[in-house]
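Quick one: structure tokens for this chain, please?
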Amino acid sequence: MTHNPISISIPNPPLRAGDDLGGRSHAATTPFGPLRTHGRFAYRPITDVDDFVWPGGARLAVYLGFNIEHFAFGEGLGANIGPASPQPDVLNYSWREYGNRVGVWRCVELFDQLRMPTGVLLNTALYDHCPEVPDAFLARGDELIGHGHTNAVRQSDLDEAGERALLRHCRDRIAAHAGEPPKGWLSPWISESALTPDLLSETGYRYTLNWCHDDRPVRMATRGGPLWSIPYPQELNDIPMIVGRQMDGAAFADMIVDHFDEMLAQANHATRPQPLVMGIALHPYLVGQPHRLRHLRRALAHIAQRRDDGEIWMTTPGAICEAMEAATGEAAVGSPDVVTTVATTAAAGG
């Protein structure tokens, strides 16, 4: 279902030296002039507030970004719980595989118990490796989001043709399974080329989760039309916190609660209330471990109680994108090959 907040007009901040909202980056022309910029959006302070509310009247939208990934055996990239060994690195490979065999199912049960939707960041290699997993999330009605074919490969290592092929493959594979193409994308390892936003819009994606620069959705300029940047967390994320900073499960759960309480207070600020977005990034091989799952349950139950009290909008990134499109009247338009692919899939009964 599409929820429509009050119609608004998101202001375009004034351009400054070095800005170009045509999606082109520019290098500095003098040693002490404006620095090179991405050209995707201009600066806008958080104190410049939007005066609207999310569906249901809430000021804070909260979503779970649940990363389900598959890695090649004996080659490629992968998160590590212990020191990397010569390939085949059985220790680290099997630790990640625990997430697909055990952790994911325990998390699904928790999400069901708390009646929480998820935005599922999906490697399409899972369709070959463990199709039961994407089937389970489709049956729940969760949003399936493109997340590459595998996290064993870094997207930024691809040339333009290779990157476009990856985006099309993931779009078409998910569309064949879900009956519609994914609205959004998160790059494996959040790695981009200079052309990634352009290629996303040109292949029919409507939003990206790659950028973590704001607590609000931001409209990005691309050569293919508008693309929404939906906030995705790099701190409220189990990989950098638990793997990178060696945080234990109890401390990570406390971090979720503290972050949520502060974001709720900021969204309902006494003098400048505004609609904000809070994501929580999770991986089943981390939070699906029993000792961490118990603490995650505590943190998510805290959020679920505020949802039941009507204080937040518990949602998905795609629903946030739809709300912004409805509010601004700026929906991304899919490229012709998207329409053709989806129509062909439907006609074939795929």
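Residues 1-7, 338-350 have pLDDT under 50 and may be disordered.
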